[in-house]
Structures are given as C-alpha cells and as structure tokens.
Amino acid sequence: KAGVTQTPRYLIKTRGQQVTLSCSPISGHRSVSWYQQTPGQGLQFLFEYFSETQRNKGNFPGRFSGRQFSNSRSEMNVSTLELGDSALYLCASSLEAGGGYNEQFFGPGTRLTVL
Amino acid sequence: EDKVVQSPLSLVVHEGDTVTLNCSYEVTNFRSLLWYKQEKKAPTFLFMLTSSGIEKKSGRLSSILDKKELFSILNITATQTGDSAVYLCAATNRDDKIIFGKGTRLHILP
C-alpha cells in the first residue's frame, strides 16, 4: 500500500507570494492533518480535514488555509508569505478523524523556504 | 495554555545503553499521549497511551503514562545506532487538539 505523498518536496518562494502544497493520503484514509515544523517552535498542528470538512484548526493566522477533495486529497495554501513561514510542512493521514486516538501516518513533508 | 515539555533536549549514549526519555504535559481535557520517532522527515508512530500505569511495549521500546503526575516516559533498552532519531511526544485533548513537545534528539554512538 502506498504511503502518504506530498508534492512538491521542496519549494522556494519570495515574501508576499502565495503557495499551495498538496497531500495524497493513504488509500482508504479519510482524515488529513497538516503540521508546520520549525527548529524554534517544533511541530505545530495547523488543521485537520475529514470528509471534505475542516474539523479542527490550530492557532495560525488566516493566511493559512486548506481544503479537502472528495478523493480525500488535500491542499494547503499560504498567502502573503512571510520569512517566518519557512518550515517543513508535514501532512498525516488516518482512517478516521481525530489524530489523538487514530494512528496517523506522516508524509515526507514539503520544505518551504521563503526569501 | 496547553503545553508539552520533553527532556532532555538531546542525549548521546553508547550502543547497548538503556535510555529513558521524559515527557510532561499540561493539557485541559486530556485524551491521549502519543510518541513518535522522527529520523529524517516523516515521524513514525510508536505508541498511544490513554490509561495510567499500563505499559506498552514494542520490542526494545516501552512506554508508560502517569495521569496523576502528568508525565510519560519512553524507554529504549539495548540501544542500537538505528535508534538515533528525534523522539517526539504529543498530547491530545477531547477537542482533538494535538500539542507536540520540542522533541529529544537521541544519538547512539557505535
């Protein structure tokens, strides 16, 4: 069974631009969660989507948004990029909603660098 | 504010040693405690703990949760160089919010 895939793997943008990251969950998984990982803040929860609905959101500004499609694939968008948005963005999928009680499988991440 | 604190932040030991990694948490409406291993990019799931005092084991790794004292430990016995990684602890609440600690970077010397 194929694992979680994320595209692109690496991305370089400049301040003020916007970016869209993509995540394809494991086949049959309906929940996709997004995380931001930086050396200073560690791994931080962005949001979770289940059945095309955002069911949970972390403490990030509105510039961070996402969506989920009917095939469970998810995209994350960051608008008006800031230098501090440089990070590894990880997505994780699970069979059911709730990463707190359903095992999550992480993708390899997208390394975003904002210049 | 909910928080998860891991200690030590980094640890260097020799192959064959036993290590104990610590995770304390303060989370309102706590639901579960999770441990992950992150070697390069993708964290991999190790344990999920919801009940106090029940040890979970997987090979040389084991973990236990103390809900009274609000902490968990991850033990690795007979360490191998392949155990070198960042170990992440996370706590979740009943609203499915997940809060990660900063991780413990473990390096095993051959």
Characterize the structure shown.
The complex is a heterodimer of chains A (115) and B (110). Chain A is mostly beta strands and 115 residues long. Chain A has strands at residues 5-7, 10-13, 19-24, 31-38, 42-50, 53-57, 64-68, 74-78, 87-94, 105-106, 110-114. In chain A, the strands form two sheets. In chain A, strands 2, 4, 5, 6, 9, 10 and 11 form a seven-stranded mixed beta sheet that branches. A four-stranded antiparallel beta sheet of chain A has the order 1-3-8-7, with no helix packed on it. Chain A is globular. The termini of chain A are far apart. The model of chain A has no long low-confidence stretch (mean pLDDT 93). Chain B is mostly beta strands and 110 residues long. Helix content of chain B is 0%, strand content 61%. Chain B contains no helices and eleven strands. In chain B, strands 2, 4, 5, 9, 10 and 11 form a six-stranded mixed beta sheet that branches. In chain B, strands 1-3-8-7-6 form a five-stranded antiparallel beta sheet, with no helix packed on it. Chain B is globular, with a radius of gyration of 13 Å. Chains A and B meet through strand 5 and strand 10 of A and strand 4, strand 5, strand 9 and strand 10 of B.
- Low-confidence region ranges of chain B: none
Query: Roughly how many Å is the radius of gyration of chain B?
Result: 13 Å
What distance separates the N and C termini of chain B? Answer: 41 Å
Instruction: Output the radius of gyration of chain A.
Output: 13 Å
Order of helices and strands of chain A: EEEEEEEEEEE
Number of strands of chain A: 11
Assembly state of the chains shown: heterodimer
- Which series of helices and strands of chain B comes N to C? EEEEEEEEEEE
> How is the biggest beta sheet of chain A arranged?
7 strands, mixed
Largest interface: A-B, 25 and 24 residues
